[in-house]
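Contributing new records

If you add data, match the layout below exactly. Sequence lines come first and carry their own label; structure lines follow with theirs. Keep one chain per record. Anything else will be rejected by the validation script.
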Amino acid sequence: MGDTALEAVLRRDRAVVTAALVVITVLAWAYVLWLAADMVMPVTPASDSAAGDMAGMDMSNMSGMDMGGKDMSGNDMGGMDMSAAMEPGLRAWATADFAFIFTMWAVMMVGMMTPSVAPMLLLYAGVGRKALADGSPIASTAWFFTGYLVVWVAFSIVATGAQWLLARLALLNASMATDSAVLGGLVLIAAGLYQWAPIKGVCLRQCQAPIAFLASHGGFRTTAPGALRLGIDHGAYCLGCCWALMALLFVGGVMNVLWIAGIAILVLLEKMIPTGQLIPRLSGALMAAIGVWLVFPPL
């Protein structure tokens, strides 16, 4: 294959991979936006099972109910705080709720992290096509991407468990954000300090330089299991770089679309703009400062 033909093929492959990544990202964000508009979060009930049974009821059906503790017929309901019982998200988690919240986290991670791994995938696809033309093919880009996503799916399991625990301790509201200024401040301080941690720098350098990552991990793989493992390795560095930022979702709200977008943009800027540690350290200092202000508010 001539150089001109090869260049044309490489451009086509990059266009195909880019289009696929855009579609995946758009679908993931569409799902997140749908959830943000319609989802009712399951949380552990603060009172008795009656409150749990009444969670998730349509607020529009409350017009005939007296919030003073009586039903529509005027019968006394024992002083139950109906406004609390009707608050979205007061019921206990069932198995289906765990599956639902896990799916939410997994899709959200795909939407947030796919743009930042695009340079690596485009590099992989380009080299893969050239290797095929030279008669020494490497494993498909899809295997590498699958390995990368496996890491974030595993993280989603942990995030689901963390959300369940916070809900169990009554530390999350219906929008899946903490109501505790102290807890929110401590999470911000921890995330801010992690932005300055040496391990953050090590992981970020691997994410910022795909070629350096490949050189330090033995290059491309010719087998599917090898490419899958390489993707897992890259995902692990990405997780090491970004997990503390994902914890901030519990501060601003797991379904706060603007908050999600802000974190995704910060992740993208850290990886794509060649400023070394500047962006993480500036953002980390800001996070820590806001966290201190929340924990120790001025009088």
